[in-house]
Amino acid sequence: MKTAIVYYSMLGNCEMVAERIAERLDVDMIRIEPDKAYPDKGAKKFLWGGKSAVMGEKPALKPYDFDADKYGNVIIGFPVWASRPAPPIVSFVDQNKVKLAGKKISAFACQSGNGAEKAFDKLKDQLGIDAFWAELILIDPKIRQKNDDIDKIEAFCQKQ
Fold first, then answer.
1. To 10 degrees, the CA torsion angle through 111, 114, 120, 121?
2. Would you write out the chain's pLDDT as a tens digit for each of its 160 residues?
3. Angle, nearest 10°, between helix axes 87-100 and 116-127?
4. How many CB atoms neighbour CB 51 within 10 A?
5. Exposure string for 103-118, b = 16+ CB within 10 A, e = fewer
6. Residue-wise DSSP of the chain
7. 110: closest CA among 135, 73, 74, 93?
8. Rounded distance, CA 131 to CA 133, Å?
9. Cβ partners under 8 Å of residue 94, min gap 6
10. From the CB of residue 54, how many other CB atoms can be counted at a distance below 10 Å?
């Protein structure tokens, strides 16, 4: 069965990680985007994104191509907002929860501070699963590139 990486990336961190995983694995990359983009600079970025995450908002998404029947393995990637998955990923999971049941699901999160563990727990609760197949947490990998990030991505890929 094939693998899909379903991800949302506002500032390019999750996109970079998804691309690095795709270099190592045979995957289909599926980018999730909200119909209305979130502010990506200054105080508005934190206010609108944080409020949306804390309030559990599920924004409308631009059309995306995800045929769950094609995939046995789904990797979900997202930025952490207020210790929660970014709302576009919450929307995706909400729309596909039944289709994701029984799949081997892994997750990666990019964050500037902390909260990824709580975000993973919230996503597992939403999916109705006890654990991810594999988990990966990176801190601003696009702007704070570290050598051990490559090792962490490699270890994550080996678990797939």
1. -160
2. 899 999 999 989 999 999 999 999 999 999 999 998 765 766 555 555 555 665 677 899 999 999 999 999 999 999 998 899 999 999 999 999 999 999 999 999 999 989 999 999 999 999 999 999 999 999 999 887 777 999 999 999 999 9
3. 40
4. 13
5. bbbbbbbbbeeebbee
6. -EEEEEE--SSSHHHHHHHHHHHHS-EEEEE--BSSPPP-SHHHHHHHHHHHHHTT----B------GGGEEEEEEEEEEETTEE-HHHHHHHHHHHHHHTTSEEEEEEEESSS-HHHHHHHHHHHHT-S--S-EEEEESTTTS--HHHHHHHHHHHHT-
7. 135
8. 7
9. 58, 126
10. 13
Matching residue, tokens 């995957």: 27
